[in-house]
Amino acid sequence: MSDITPGTWQLDPTHTEIGFTVRHIMSKVRGKFEKFEGTIVTSEDVTASHATATIDLSSINTGTADRDNHLRSGDFFNVESTPTMTFVSTGVVRKGDTDFVVTGDLTIKDVTKPIELAVDFLGEGKDPWGGTRVGVEATGQLSRKDFGIDFNIPLEGDKVMIGDKITLQITAEAVLQA
Predict the structure, then answer these.
(1) Is residue 71 included in any domain, yes or no?
(2) The Lipid/polyisoprenoid-binding YceI-like domain covers which part of the protein (predicted)?
């Protein structure tokens, strides 16, 4: 974000992916959310920039319909009573020319916890439709139990079917608003 135009940027949902990875028994399950909206407001002083996002939890897609329906249930997201997850940034710290740490509040199931995202600014440029775009990639981790998502099935020994640690991977393009 060192050479980014100050302004308000909207996430482009067709060129943005909000994904996650979680341990499942002896492997990992990957998924993404297909419906979301987000805004990045950039400032001359990059540390004064901020971002918000709202993710439709019912849009979860792990590639398995039965698993996705279970994740929407009261055992996990309980989308009937808490249909969205939100992120509101609280700070930006520069870590290099294109590397930043963005801190913020993540709310899932009416529980708000701080989260830290490592952000790599991929650049800014004109698109073929006359707009201006920026690209970023972000990663972070959270404990699902911190948000009251603690369903599990015990396995032999001290093992469980689903890991607690969730790794977030976000690849985003945002378009400068006029």
Answers:
(1) yes
(2) 8-175
